[in-house]
Amino acid sequence: MSSPTNSFSKYVVNFEDDTPSEIIDTQIDLIQSRGGTIYEMNDRNSYKGFNAYFPDDFVEILETHPKILMIEKS
């Protein structure tokens, strides 16, 4: 019996401008706990978020957070 494997992809994750850094840090911790990697952080007025490599099935979990505006495969 083979075990299922999660495929990983690169994503851009954008947050609302007023999102506290603690919330972003929590999402980063969750991604890293699933084997993901953050490879670029942005905390500017025009773009608050990060670029990351994480399991495709984790997108559904992140999308439920009310402060996340967009998750896009890159």
UniProtKB/TrEMBL annotation:
InterPro entries named in the record: S8pro/Inhibitor_I9_sf
Domain of life, source organism: Eukaryota
Protein name, UniProt field: Inhibitor I9 domain-containing protein
